[in-house]
Amino acid sequence: MSSITQDIGTSRSRPLARRPDAPPPTEGPPRVPWGWALGITALVFAALTAVKWYQHAFSWSVGMDSFSDEFQTYWMSIFYTEIIAIPVLGGLGALALWLTRDRDIMSLSPHDELRRFYAMFGILTVAAIAIVSALGLLTEADAAWHQVVVRDTDFTPTHIFLFYLGIPVAWGALILAWIWVHTRLPIFTSRISVPFSVAILGFMMVGPVVAFNEWAHTFFYAEELFAAPVHWFFVLAGFFLVFLIGFVVQCLQRMRELMHVVSYEEIERLAAEH
């Protein structure tokens, strides 16, 4: 049966077959780790719930005047924590991913490589839920707050969590995901995934859009309307995430090859057990 796996085909990164002298695999086929994926999703919802509670509790009582002492205590202290903690934690995470990368990635077995793809799709599922939830709660809350207060400046209760927490965390998560993909998946260690890279770079352009949006609101466009021209480019930056479809197609092509080999290895394992 091992000879069959050697004829399945090759990828751009390495052959798919395991060594002829390697013993049959002793573990079952890889599966999506739904347990920890659902656990992380629950943590995301818990964090969003805490943010919404804080906003509802203090946005109106101590969030109206950004020059007041109360605003400095209840909101700017969070802002300073965010702008320091997020880059530091992101940098440490990126360094850890790089230092713990596989030094002999090309010797990774098809079984383990396929398991990593499943883990990655579990991460993508969590990310999709988190992004939709954050957009639905933080972004709409920001627009609703401005509809009532009208004032739109750099520092408002909703901006503290949307612009200085939600968006930077999304950037950091995407960058860490890019490093993980290009250090843990053999097919991407010798080449860069263009769709994935374009999706990340395009989404990061929301940063300049935020800066222009706040500048425009401060100087000549005080009203906060959904259809305001200064908001159009937020939609464009979000559309860049469509490039993730191309990345998913790249992954599915490789997974299709791996599934052939893992299927034969599973047959070998069952035959060895019986």
Gist?
The chain has 274 residues and is mainly alpha-helical.
Question: How are the SSEs placed, and which strands pair?
Answer:
Blueprint: H1 2-6, H2 34-58, H3 69-99, H4 110-149, H5 157-184, H6 194-204, H7 206-219, H8 232-239, H9 244-273
Helix pairs in contact: 2-4, 3-5, 4-5, 4-9, 5-6, 6-9
What can you see in these coordinates?
The protein is elongated and about 75 Å long. The two termini are 15 Å apart. It contains 9 helices and no strands. Helix 4 packs antiparallel against helix 5, helix 4 (110-149) runs antiparallel to helix 9 and helix 5 runs antiparallel to helix 6 (194-204). It has a single domain, classed as Particulate methane monooxygenase subunit c2. Chain: C (Glutathione S-transferase Yfyf (Class Pi), Chain A, domain 2), CATH 1.20.1050.50. By secondary structure, it is an all-alpha fold.
List keywords for this structure.
mainly alpha; Glutathione S-transferase Yfyf (Class Pi), Chain A, domain 2; 9 helices; 0% strand; disordered N terminus
**H/E series, N to C?**
HHHHHHHHH
Low-confidence stretches: 1-13, 17-21
CATH architecture: Up-down Bundle
**Within the CATH hierarchy, at the fold level, what is the topology?**
Glutathione S-transferase Yfyf (Class Pi), Chain A, domain 2
